[in-house]
Amino acid sequence: MEERSGKNEAFCRHYLRCMDPERAAEAAGTADGFGLLESKNIRKRLERMREASAGQIRREDAVRRLAQLAFGRANDAACLAFRGGEADLERLDLSAVSELKVTEKGGVEIKLIDRVRALEALCGLLGETSAEGAGELYRVLAEAADDEGGWENG
Length: 154
Hints:
- It is a single chain.
- This protein is mainly alpha-helical.
- The protein has helices at residues 2-18, 21-28, 33-38, 40-54, 59-71, 75-83, 115-125, 130-148; strands spanning 97-102, 108-112.
- The protein has 2 domains: 2-54; 59-148, no CATH class.
- The chain has 8 helices and 2 strands, in the order ααααααββαα.
- It is flat.
């Protein structure tokens, strides 16, 4: 009974991360993810977990996540594009990827998130007006370029 309870708990945790019942069931070492979702105990546990996590998300979390998306690196996405099937998908941070497509010739097309939209949303959360936010964004980008010896002010 305890083993089943542990697997049910694992299923719920995986399901809330991926929202795919079959994948969650496989990760939890159980079968029939859709069948598990029909279980009253599973539905109750999912609801309790959702309620618990909903109260835990704070404004700072959203700001931090938007900043990661806006300023994050795309190295892992490039690794996936160049290595394809050789890439270890479990270790790659693909949060910057918004779309992934395999072409007819077997190539990989990767579309990244819109960083400008992420920056606009970030400025909105920080309470910046568009003019102030744009000025601040330019200042931060200019400082970053100076630190890296990149862009030149012309």
